[in-house]
Amino acid sequence: MILEKSEKILEKCSLCNNCLGRAFGMLGKSTNYIRGKSIRLVLNMEREARGMSTFEEPEKCELCGNIFKKTEYFARLCYDKAQRLGIEFESFLVGSRFPKEIMDKEKQLWEEFELEFSEPINREFNREVGKFLEVLFQKPVDKENPDIIFIIDPYNERIELQIKPLYIYGKYRKLVRGIPQTPLKGFKESVASIICKPFSKATKGKCIFHGAGREDVDVRMLGNGRPFVVEIKKPIKRKINLEKIAQEINQSKKVGVLDLKFINREEMKKILTSNHKKEYEALVYIEEGITAEDVKKVVEKLQNCTIYQRTPKRVLRRRADIVRVRKVYDVKAEIIDNKHFKLRLITDGGLYIKELISGDNGRTTPSVSEILGKKAWCEKLDVLNILDDKVKTL
User: Is 360 a catalytic residue?
Assistant: First the structure.
């Protein structure tokens, strides 16, 4: 069957040994070149015995144009580009972009001669270039999760690099007020810019900051810190010293980071979609004055209380106008003076604390203003801790 089909194929098309062998590429464990050379040898022996002309390997293959004679050349192009850029990686993969007309021609060949065990041209090309690169780099091909992919356009001799991103998890503390989490017009720096600068410098890649939630510009993030992930796109350097980067960030005295570690994309998704309870401390101002009875009433009413909160007016431009249901789990309060008291809260994530205090003209209920029947404002607010779901009391 193989010799009969090969004879019919070669009567119509002048194929190199690689393309002939690839027509039966899923049979046996040899390379396509050796398989094709062997088929041609046996077929020619039979044709000579019958007094017929033989099928010599053509000077130029009608299908691939002799591209397989240049696999080592393309491997060296990939190697030279990686060396020139100084890219760090532990594993790689080779991909390619073959012209549509060649892919279509190969498919027509399969269909015409009913080739059930053929292999696509790009798969063989990728594998053969990869063999040379494994020797040059002394690093393995990884088909599942490579650090870098070399995409070759063989007929235009172009090499494109696809570099796997780096993902670094950590927690940040925002130690001062007046800094947004991400870049904002009117502010020279942000939590993201302070954290990303040393990462970009160390990796020579593009740094993208992902926070697990955010706090307002005038709110500090203290305690055990807020989880975040730094995503580094197209990193040239992968072997970076996280401890040294943490020290550089912490020297800002504005933002501190801790618990830095490498993670994968799946872990990043889980971190950024988790919704944890939070511990807050607010300085509340009551213009009409506050008494011990008032403070006690606030604690009693808010303890284990369900809050119905319509989207605050101040964020309506970027948030849907809906009613969110959140819970306050634990409350403590302490009078500071006759117009101020300190309020400690443990609540569900996503509860707007400033509006829990002011009431936002009735859009949040109950609120401190509603409970006391007096106008209340949040003068200062700090996020003290991002809590494990099991922690519910102060």
Answer: no
